[in-house]
Specification:
With about 350 residues, this protein is of the alpha/beta class. It folds into 2 domains: about 170 residues, 3-Layer(aba) Sandwich (Rossmann fold); about 160 residues, Orthogonal Bundle (N-(1-d-carboxylethyl)-l-norvaline Dehydrogenase, domain 2). It contains 14 helices and 12 strands. Helix 4 links the parallel strand 7 and strand 8. The longest helix is centred in the middle third of the chain and has 18 residues. The chain starts with a strand and ends with a helix.
Length: about 350
């Protein structure tokens, strides 16, 4: 099968390398010229606890892409770059080719606007990886990986995509891809909060479990209003979080403890959000992940006070108006305890 990976960073590079190893035809499109040159010179290298994998793979920048059909496009860019990348694809997609979103957030809607819903496939990706230097990706723990049509239909193309992507970790088709995407968006709200301080995700979640649950639930309220059936994944249990589901304190404590333990086992101890702020010194995806949840929530009269506060504090960190500190999380916790119960 032929694949074009657009955005050859942590997610795209990891998946692309395993597709190459399995015998698929893969080309990488990446705007980071240093990364492209390193891959061209030395191949793409994945490092993990199980060893090192280096594969040769064609790599190019968007300005000078290789010729030939794109095949199945795996769109792996940051969410804020989705529209521009989808437009690049739209100019080149063949009539039977499609774009699969291997991204965080609700990018499928943006892609569908640009290339058309029939040529858009959704995916939920939750494994850990980081681009450490040009040409080198550090792969952490595995996680859930599903693909699905936007309308939930069981199709041959989704089955084929899932089969080939399973060269990395098991991938299965789903009839409810948006249930996974909204579930992860609530979890993402937790992870943005963990980036308020220079500490591991596990440490922050363990210290403020009630805050983490409430952050997730603000997003889950929006999903519920839209009629989305949330899916559990990788020790994230949306069905246990919501008070309207009859929250069981003992089961909830056990679920949060399992989530903390998973985060401690993972080779990636801090989030990509933390890395954007502390290492790469660039804007995060906050406006394109949490922003849509806030906007959609307002359509249903949902104010999401914790999420709105968190978005503003991430902006402060991006602009250098605040430093990472436990005081930021403590301030958010005080807002939680002073906010009327939902």
């Amino acid at each position: 099968m032929r694949f074009t990976v657009i955005g050859a960073g942590a997610i795209g590079g990891t998946v692309g390398a395993h597709l190459v190893r399995a015998g698929d035809t893969v080309q990488l499109i990446e705007r980071d010229r240093a990364h492209v040159e390193a891959v061209r010179a030395n191949g793409l290298t994945l490092r993990s606890e199980t060893g090192t994998l280096t594969v040769p793979v064609p790599a190019a920048t968007p300005e000078a892409p290789p010729t030939g059909p794109l095949g199945t496009v795996l769109l792996c860019v940051k969410s804020q770059d989705t529209r521009a990348a989808a437009a690049w694809c739209a100019e080149r997609l063949g009539p039977d080719e499609c774009v699969v979103s291997l991204q965080n957030g609700l990018c499928e809607a943006v892609i569908a606007e640009v290339v058309g819903a029939p040529r858009t496939v959704g995916a939920f990706v939750n494994f850990s990886a980081d681009l450490m230097e040009p040409g080198v990706i550090e792969v952490g723990g595995p996680g859930t990986f599903v693909v699905g049509e936007l309308d939930g239909a069981a199709t041959a193309r989704v089955a084929a995509i899932a089969e080939h992507l399973s060269a990395f970790i098991p991938v299965r088709p789903t009839a409810n891809v948006f249930g996974y995407l909204w579930a992860k968006l609530g979890y993402a709200n937790m992870l943005f909060a963990t980036a308020l301080v220079d500490a591991t995700m596990a440490d922050v979640i363990e210290r403020f479990p009630d805050l983490m649950v409430e952050l997730a639930c603000e997003v889950y309220d929006v999903a519920e209003a839209r009629g989305v059936r949330l899916e559990p994944f990788d020790d994230v249990e949306p069905g246990l979080y919501h008070p309207r589901a009859g929250r069981d304190p003992e089961r909830l404590r056990a679920a949060m403890a399992s989530l903390v333990e998973r985060r401690r086992r993972d080779g990636k101890s801090k989030s990509g959000i933390w890395r954007d702020l502390a290492v790469r010194h660039r804007h995060t995806e906050v406006d394109h992940q949490l922003g849509p949840a806030v906007a959609i929530g307002s359509e249903y009269g949902l104010t999401l006070p914790l999420t709105r506060w968190l978005v503003e504090r991430i902006h402060d960190l991006e602009a250098g108006r605040r430093a990472m500190d436990w005081a930021n999380v403590e301030e958010l916790e005080r807002l939680r305890t002073s906010t009327p119960s939902r």
